[in-house]
């Protein structure tokens, strides 16, 4: 979610407090908030190399579409101050319509994701027919990218130490990328663990560095990459975007 505030002040020469005057104050506040919202959205990283503003510069249709999305942002707070000034807040969801519009075309719809076995509340999988308890299936993955200067993006990429892609746009179903985003982001490992998107038994791996191509692309060890690929259901939870990335709170430009 992106939130942006705007302010509209009453016309000092108009003491009538007419409906037209109130509408004018609201319109002024809305335009102020829309301008702030647009400037904020422009800075969002789509991937390691592209921000929203980069696409706006080179694609007129994209620019016009983004303006429409911003203009349609909902008012989620509205408050009049004692001097008649109006403060409002606009909120725009980065999933749904925005995600459908901004996410790259190479993120395509794929076959339905297989339903994964639910891990019981006691943390134990049911025994198989022979009475042996099988290992738990992972329900998602947490990538701990704290301490390496990693930054968020709409389309993060994870590679192993040889540069082979472990997670990226080719791994996800557009349905899930649009509805929930390719990944969640958290400020702590505990917060990532509590994110419902990774389920009750997520695999946890540590990012060792970011790629030279950009701070939104992460490198994990070859051993962790092999561990992830060896999970029988890993393609299922990757398609469903059951990924959370831990990053440091301090934002870098």
* Gyration radius, rounded: 22 Å
Count of individual helical segments: 8
Order of helices and strands: EHHHEEHEEEHEHEEHHE
Give the N-to-C terminal Cα separation. Answer: 19 Å
Instruction: Work out the strand percent.
Output: 15-25%
The count of DSSP E runs of length 2 or more, i.e. the number of strands, is 10
Quick tags:
3-stranded antiparallel sheet; 10 strands; 7-stranded mixed sheet; 253 residues; 2 domains; 8 helices; alpha/beta
Describe, in plain words, how this protein is organized in 3D.
The chain has 253 residues and is an alpha/beta fold. It folds into two domains: 2-102, no CATH class; 140-246, no CATH class. 30% of the residues lie in helices and 22% in strands. It has eight helices and ten strands. The chain has a seven-stranded mixed sheet. A hairpin with a 2-residue loop joins strand 8 and strand 9. The two termini are 19 Å apart.
Which SSEs are present, and which pair or pack?
Layout (H helix, E strand, L loop, with lengths): L1 E7 L10 H24 L9 H7 L1 H12 L2 E7 L5 E7 L4 H6 L37 E5 L12 E3 L5 E3 L6 H7 L3 E3 L2 H5 L8 E10 L2 E7 L1 H9 L3 H6 L3 E4 L7
Helix pairs in contact: 1-3, 2-3
Question: Care to give the gist of this entry?
Answer:
This protein is of the alpha/beta class and 253 residues long. Helices cover 30% and strands 22% of the residues. The strands form two sheets. Strands 6-5-9-8-4-10-7 form a seven-stranded mixed β-sheet.
């Amino acid at each position: 979610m992106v939130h942006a505030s705007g302010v509209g002040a009453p016309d000092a020469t108009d003491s009538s407090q007419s409906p037209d005057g109130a509408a004018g104050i609201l319109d002024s506040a809305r335009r102020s908030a829309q301008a702030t919202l647009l400037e904020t959205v422009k800075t969002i990283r789509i991937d390691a190399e592209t921000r929203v503003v980069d696409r706006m510069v080179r694609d007129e249709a994209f620019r016009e579409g983004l303006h429409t999305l911003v203009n349609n942002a909902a008012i989620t707070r509205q408050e009049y101050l004692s001097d008649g000034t109006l403060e409002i807040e606009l909120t725009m969801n980065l999933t749904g319509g925005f995600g459908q519009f901004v996410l790259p075309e190479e993120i395509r719809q794929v076959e339905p994701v297989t339903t994964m076995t639910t891990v019981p509340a006691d943390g134990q999988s049911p025994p198989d027919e022979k009475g042996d308890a099988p290992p738990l299936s992972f329900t998602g993955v947490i990538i701990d990218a704290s301490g390496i200067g990693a930054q968020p993006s709409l389309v993060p990429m994870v590679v192993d130490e040889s540069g082979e892609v472990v997670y990226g746009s080719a791994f996800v179903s557009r349905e899930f990328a649009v509805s929930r985003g390719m990944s969640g982001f958290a400020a702590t490992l505990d917060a990532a663990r509590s994110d419902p998107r990774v389920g009750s038994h997520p695999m946890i791996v540590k990012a060792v560095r970011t790629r030279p191509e950009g701070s939104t692309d992460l490198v994990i060890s070859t051993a962790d990459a092999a561990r992830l690929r060896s999970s029988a259901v890993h393609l299922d939870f990757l398609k469903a975007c059951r990924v959370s990335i831990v990053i440091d709170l301090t934002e870098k430009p």
